[in-house]
Amino acid sequence: MPKGYIIGNISLKNAEAYKPYSLRNDELVPRYGGRFLARGGPSEILEGESRPRHVIIEFPSYADALAFYNDPDYQENMKIRQANAEGSIIVVEGV
Questions:
Q1: CA distance 25 to 6
Q2: pTM score, two decimals?
Q3: Which of 28, 31, 39, 49 has the least C-beta neighbours within 10 A?
C-alpha cells in the first residue's frame, strides 16, 4: 500500500505563539503512525514561488494522513497554526 504524506509550506507570523502547535503535533502525529521527514530547517527555492518553512510528514497510508488531518484534536490544534502562520497544507499519496 502506498504511503501518505502531508506537506506544509508555511510562513510564520508569530514564531513564539506557533510553538504550542508544533509541540502538540509531537503527540498527535504518532497516533496515526506518522513521522516527520522534514520540519523547518534550511531550504533553497530553485524554481517558482514558495514559503520559507517546509514540513513533510509520512504516514503508513493516504487514508492515515487524511485521518490525522481530520482528527478533532488536530482540528483544534490547527487553530493555533492558522492564527500564527499562513501557508498551504497538501495531502498526497506516495508511489
A1: 13
A2: 0.93
A3: 49
